Amino acid sequence: MPINADYRGPADLPEVIALFPLPGALLLPRGQMPLNIFEPRYLAMIDDAFRDGHRLIGMIQPDATHSEKDGTPKLFQVGCVGRITQLAESGDGRYILELTGVSRFKLVEELSVKTPYRQCRVDYFPYLDDFTARKGEDEVDREALLTVLTDFLKANNLKVDWDGVETAPNEALVNALAMMSPYGAPEKQALLEAPDLKTRAEILIAVTEMDLAKKRTSGDPPLQ
């Protein structure tokens, strides 16, 4: 999705961003993530993002295996900042919005703040390639990706818009499938932290093949 802001590199993004920790949520550069915001602290976060003018939110997964001394879940060290590109009010106090991914970041330091939501200092420089659209997509094994997608759809009695799949560029296809994948936090984090698009596609193929093999041997029912 085209966005009005032009982000050419880390200097175009703030070093301190608000974070929205959400288990199983995967946002990738130029990917779109719908969100239903209803908690007061995150409603305040959205208001502040517009008040500050940048409309940016950092999506990151909480690490369920570790907690801070006060019991607050620790965060994984890599997330993705997104710009609010659509916003609607529900009429019952919620915001319905869509984030468009800009760049991944590494968490440098969580700040002590008065806001009800968490804020961190982040570093975008390890992910300079995120600012270049379709970087490395010619190296993706598209045929292998479509083969495993077909197997996954058949195993779970699902359908897909094949016209849309066939016309999608490799970057959009890989990232959309990764974001929509039904896997857990560790797998989603591995997809996020993949060094390049080719590796992300390979991880997605491998995880899906393992999931399909597990279902075949265990007799687990397909996804509903």
From TrEMBL:
Highest taxon of source: Bacteria
One Pfam family, short name: LON_substr_bdg
InterPro entries according to UniProt: Lon_prtase_N, Lon_prtase_N_sf, PUA-like_sf
Domain Lon N-terminal: 17-212
Protein's name according to its UniProt entry: Lon N-terminal domain-containing protein
Organism, scientific name: Rhodopseudomonas pseudopalustris
